[in-house]
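Entry 14. Ran structure prediction on the chain below.
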Amino acid sequence: MRIGIDCRQIWNPEKYEGAGVAHYLFFLLKSLAKIDQQNDYFLFFKRGYDTTQLTFLTSNYHRMTWNPSHGNRLVKFVEQVHWRSALKKMKLDVFHSPAYTLPLWYTGASIVTVHDLAIYTHPEWFPEQQWLSTKVLVPRSIKKATHIIAVSDTTKKEIEERFHIPSERIGVIYEGVLSTKDFSGISVGEQQTFDKKHEPQQESIQTLLEHIKDQKYILSVNTLEPRKNMTRLIQAFEHMQHSHPEPLHFIIAGSLGWKYEEIFRAMKNSPCKQRIHYVGYITQEEKYTLLRNAVVFVCVSLWEGFGLSNLEAMSCDTPVLASHIPAFREVLGDAAYFVDPYDVKAIAQGLQELLTNTKLRRRYQQFGKKRTQEFSWQQCAEQTLRIYNVCRDQ
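Output, structure tokens:
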């Protein structure tokens, strides 16, 4: 079988590029390479991406280069024509887009992965000028795909309701989570130390950890964007400081997304600004170091399709405080302490409970560790490969 995968959004550890979708694609591809050395894969990367760092790829994984355009709608429209033509020449049995959109006019068997549809219900959370994607590419891709992969039942229901897609055309395949054992075997540059790009108020992790020494900290790992709800989380941290006797720090990690200015204003103007630390984008090694040592991991997003960071925290025995949104309830089960993400006092009370109630914290550590055992990248890859076979035969 000849399988094409659009890898243009794959995680680039060398250049600090990529977050949720990019990590999903990277670890899916890595796990596919472990379980399938028989089918031929044609992987389409952006020009400039160093594919030599993908040392796990075997000889049946063929690296291709596609140079995306950066221009107005007409330029992007023309690009779609060339994209479709290039794929047709490959004579693929199935083509997989892991990030929402298929090439316009592509008529072969195809699969598209949908992570969430928050941009339709809350366009104000996202960058401007999304017309081509939201009005043309995403709707057409979802409607014409042979099969759709949703990363959760929550996302599947969104697809069914918004685009009126029959349930049988949508399969739910959960993302995986790296165990601490898996993490020790990562070897594609994730554990190297690169020269970081400078971001506002960014601190070095090594310097920070030396500075706070044995003091406790809570941790949040997110791309900085409106739906991550960071401003309310900062307010909750401030509110909790009045009732928490021990010195406590708040570490925020993640690359800059969009519309993040309000977050930095909240940090700068906070009465607790000396205890709020933004460390910017972090490597895998840095992330797991921070996760292992955090007293609580916090993710109070207003909407998500899956929420991988929560499971990563649980795999490091760190209790999780999460917003009670549908995807988190589905994925995390009873393994997280849930709060209303719009209620600052509720977030603060949840943090206070987890910080002061040792028995409760241990309970969520145990439940969390058990919960992560239900998610693996190998299982994700095996289920995805089954979908490839089904689509080929249709």
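Residues 184-198 have pLDDT under 50 and may be disordered. Will compare against last week's run tomorrow.
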